[in-house]
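We modelled the chain as a single entity of 143 amino acids. Its sequence is:
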Amino acid sequence: MFASFALPDLARVSRRTVLGGLIFGVVGLIACLALGAPLTGLGLCIGLGLGLFNFRLVQRSVVKVGAREDENHKRPLAANTVGRLAVISALALGLLFLSFDLGLGVMVGLAAFQFLLLLNVARSMFKMGHGGLSDEDSEVVPS
């Protein structure tokens, strides 16, 4: 399924995810400020930033491991991913215990970034699957 996912698609997904995260962060920050929860809004932006940072590190790690001549590419990727997720999780949980509002915002921001990324990847894959259909192929034939 991912074999036909080309680099231009990845760049497009990345751009749309970053733009969506930026819009979500600004709207969320304004909403949180209006509701009197500035720490939650700040945490939301921090969480979105951590999600973006993690996504960029994943991209870099995949390129670096893919360039190696080793036969086992899964082990270094898994180790990098587990380490990164452990640090981000510890940071998010630490902020949650330090300040509930700030930590809650970070958790929501991380989840929102992952959701935006998932939506953009699914959108690109859906377009790839339906992009090759002609008008004749997409007609519904009554039975």
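As a brief sanity check on the tokenised model: The longest helix spans residues 100-130. The two ends are 31 Å apart (CA to CA).
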